[in-house]
Specification:
By secondary structure, the protein is an alpha/beta fold. It is 55% helix and 11% strand. The longest helix is centred in the N-terminal third of the chain and has 38 residues.
Length: 536
């Protein structure tokens, strides 16, 4: 497929608009269904609500089991000797007979003996691209330091800071200072200023990092570097890779059958400032971390999200990232999927990149910033119209069965995001409100309450993982802060409804009426020092 771009607003025909309306229509219809069924047949309404709740709770149990599996897998991968395994991958054998390696490592060694590898670990150059808008040095510098703390040869790593002209002179000065201070520790370091008000671009991260990537093209040509050798990781200003990240990423990239046709997704863990964030934000951040751990075990639904890696060769095929959407990360999967005619893979990397929970300078500002962040994430529903349009309304060679499965999963995930929590929490009261005399309607809330009580047992796994993934408690906090980390979970029903369902409904409703989000609202990232002062 040659045209993979999102059509501009004025070029979206009625068919495209139909599928922009679809997710919101389905979500609102699903929410209205208990009321409609209660008016028609209250018993049927009770059956529907009960069945939907049982599905929702069973999936919640599954998520908790997967969270435990994912946590233990992540811990194992963080402890693996990736640098030793890279040397063994290069040599084609495990030289020491007394060392223990995972079975899949031996399988990879055998596979490379049968089929010559496309790349050796020593060939790979990493480009760590940090995108920033108006973040302070206190936010940016720890990200660069985290990259430098990697257990990898930094002369195989490039650093690029992509910053915005609209961020102002202070941000530009900070970026240049950081490049001057840390640049000589990398193979190459540079900063590129994305011009403000670039025509036909949405104000967002996609335009920023795409501009920076294009400015690097002369460097690669001058040094005769094959784009397939370059593996690009996109980082937000607050993203701090685990020390094992680059080594594990190199390994996974080298064993991929076709490195140009893969994206590699590490686990995003929102724990950098988890002790400083308000309780509702801690609950949301922990829930997001759980979800990313679970997704790593479900490769068939894994998509680019936040920090992710892709070869420069693959990025050049897609003309880098989209400059027309505020959800350039998840959308990049679909651009790549159609560019390579469906022959494209997402590979999970069970090593984390640590990120910030939402924290602004003030409690109310933090609450607002959290909703804005989730509003942006849920705007991924805009991809539904794009995928249907490119998949079914344009000529392509994408396998039809695979495309249909992906489209249905995409629709289901966004509708569930918007409607499921509201039905689970409030659906049981609707039949009795419509029909006071129905025995079934009056018994339904009691039955649902018992089911939800049982569901709390499974929820204990989430609490366990939340405590196991906490970073050390800062000295500025007393021991009772740990107790609040347990009690915070009473916020879960509120945060699930207000910050998940309502954010998703907001985004989908805007799409229904063509009120597009045409600006990337940057989530404010504040850090607190030992005196509990904020630095934005």
């Amino acid at each position: 497929m040659t045209d993979i771009e999102i059509p501009y607003k004025e070029n979206r025909d009625w068919r495209y608009r139909l599928f922009e309306i679809l997710p919101g229509f389905l979500s609102w219809s699903l929410l209205a269904l208990p009321i409609v069924l209660s008016l028609i047949n209250v018993t049927l309404a009770c059956i529907f609500i009960l069945a939907y709740l049982l599905i929702y709770v069973s999936r919640t149990f599954g998520v908790n089991v997967r969270a435990l599996q994912g946590y233990y897998t992540m811990q194992q991968h963080k402890k693996l000797p990736w640098q030793d395994m890279l040397k063994e991958l290069e040599k084609g054998e495990v030289a020491q007979a007394d060392v223990q390696r995972p079975k899949w490592h031996y399988d990879n060694l055998l596979r490379r003996q049968v089929k010559p590898p496309v790349l050796q670990p020593s060939d790979v150059i990493h480009l760590m691209m940090v995108a920033t808008y108006n973040e302070s040095r206190e936010v940016l510098e720890p990200t660069i330091q985290a990259v430098l703390a990697s257990q990898h040869d930094m002369k195989k790593v490039m650093l690029v800071i992509a910053y915005e002209e609209r961020g102002g002179a202070e941000v530009e000065a900070t970026v240049k200072e950081l490049i001057k201070e840390y640049g000589d520790k990398f193979l190459h370091a540079a900063a590129f200023k994305h011009p403000k008000d670039t025509p036909r671009e949405i104000r967002g991260k996609g335009g920023n990092i795409t501009y920076a990537a294009r400015q690097l093209e002369p460097y690669f040509k001058e040094h005769n570097i094959d784009p397939l050798r370059v593996l690009v990781t996109t980082l937000d200003a607050d993203n701090r890779p685990d020390p094992q990240y680059i080594g594990a990423l190199t390994y996974l990239y080298c064993v991929a059958p076709d490195p140009a046709r893969v994206s590699i997704q590490p686990i995003s863990m929102y724990t950098n400032n988890i002790w400083d964030a308000p309780a509702p934000m801690r609950v949301i951040a922990t829930g997001n971390s759980f979800y990313n751990i679970v997704l790593a075990l479900r490769q068939h639904v894994l998509r680019n999200f936040s920090a992710h890696a892709q070869s420069l060769a693959g990025l050049q095929k897609t003309d880098y990232w989209s400059v027309r959407t505020i959800v350039e990360d998840g959308h990049q999967f679909w651009r790549s999927y159609f560019t390579f005619d469906g022959q494209y893979q997402m590979l999970p990397l069970y090593v984390p990149i640590y990120q910030d929970a939402v924290l602004a300078n003030g409690y109310v500002k933090t609450l607002k910033a959290q909703f804005i962040q989730l509003r942006r994430w849920t705007y991924g529903a805009s991809d539904i119209a794009y995928v249907v349009s490119k998949g079914y309304m344009h000529k392509n060679k994408v396998p039809r069965g695979d495309l249909l499965t992906k489209v249905l999963r995409l629709i289901e995930s966004h509708v569930t995001w918007a409607a499921a929590p509201l039905i689970a929490f409030f659906g049981g009261f609707i039949p009795a409100m419509v029909n006071h005399d129905s025995y079934a309607a009056n018994q339904l809330p009691i039955i649902i309450s018992n089911i939800q009580t049982v569901a709390l047992i499974g929820f204990s796994a989430s609490i366990f993982v939340s405590f196991k993934t906490l970073p050390p408690k800062p000295a500025r906090y007393k021991r009772r802060r740990s107790l609040w980390m347990l009690l915070q979970w009473v916020y879960l029903p509120v945060t699930t409804i207000v910050y998940n369902s309502l954010a998703a409904l907001y985004s989908q409703t805007r799409l229904m009426f063509g009120k597009y989000l045409d600006k990337f609202d940057v989530t404010e990232k504040a850090v607190r020092d030992e005196n509990k002062n904020y630095h934005v």
